[in-house]
Design brief:
This protein is α+β, with helices and mostly antiparallel strands and 64 residues long. The chain has 2 helices and 3 strands. The chain has helices spanning 2-7, 22-30, and strands at 12-18, 34-45, 48-58. The longest helix has 9 residues, at 22-30. The protein starts with a helix and ends in a 6-residue tail after the last strand.
């Protein structure tokens, strides 16, 4: 992430995780990501629709 946000000049980095996967979104929050949206029925798992969280981490001095 450091490379993307500071060296490569990306304004933000996004990640999508299943809402049921607390460890994944917990890790994203510890890394500085913030929740940006809930995407309903974004995927299917074992034949059932599942929602996803969209997380975003902004580069320093970039507008959120």
């Amino acid at each position: 992430m450091h490379y993307l946000l500071r060296t490569a000049g990306a304004a933000s980095v996004e990640a999508r995780v299943d809402v049921r996967n607390r460890r994944s979104w917990g890790l994203l929050e510890r890394l500085g990501f913030a929740p940006a949206a809930v995407i309903p029925h974004a995927n299917y798992f074992k034949g059932a629709p599942s929602d996803e969280y969209l997380y975003r981490c902004w580069a320093p001095n970039s507008p959120p």
